[in-house]
Design a protein that fits this description.
mainly beta, four-stranded antiparallel sheet, 1 helix, globular
């Protein structure tokens, strides 16, 4: 994977997570003026086919694809975005209440090699350190950051902000 985007290489995959019948994908995209954008797509599996339900885009740091750094400012992770979409959009009957698909994107330090999501799935962290976590339940999953040996570095809620830890100390 390149360290940066160019006129020839306008897109690069950043992250993907699949939790049963819901998924989120993230891509880095070079804009018209050379600025870097991060695109997210939320998908749902229906009738044996993935359907895009929504997504979003926002400007991103120029170093989005660069190799991640070691721990800085006493943090192993930083929340870089989040979102969600109604998985039942377009239905005629308003009951039961709509179900939501939510996701969060994190950038983790070089010490973090694997992200464990609720003990159900493991995401290997790419060299740029961007990972995303998706869930279709009401409660966000617990995310455990693991080092190269599989030892726990930190455990957080997928809905947490990096500043939440400091407020609780």
């Amino acid at each position: 994977m390149p360290d940066r985007l160019s006129r020839r290489r306008r897109f690069a995959p950043l992250a993907v997570d699949v939790a049963g019948d819901v998924a989120v994908t993230m891509f880095a995209r070079r804009g018209v003026n050379g600025e870097v954008w991060r695109d997210s797509h939320v998908l749902c599996l229906r009738r044996d086919a993935w359907r895009v339900l929504g997504g979003g885009s926002g400007s991103a740091a120029d170093n989005l694809l660069s190799e991640r750094s070691s721990v800085q400012l006493d943090r192993l992770w930083m929340r870089t975005g989040s979102g969600g979409t109604n998985r039942d959009a377009g239905r005629l009957v308003p009951f039961p209440p709509p179900r939501w698909i939510r996701y969060v994107s994190l950038r983790v330090a070089a010490e973090v090699q694997v992200v464990d999501v609720a003990g159900r799935r493991r995401i290997v962290v790419p060299r740029h350190g961007t990972v995303c976590v998706v869930w279709g339940s009401r409660r966000p999953p617990t995310v455990t950051l693991l080092d190269a040996d599989g030892d726990e570095l930190e455990r957080i809620s997928a809905a947490a902000h990096a500043d939440d830890r400091r407020r609780s100390q």
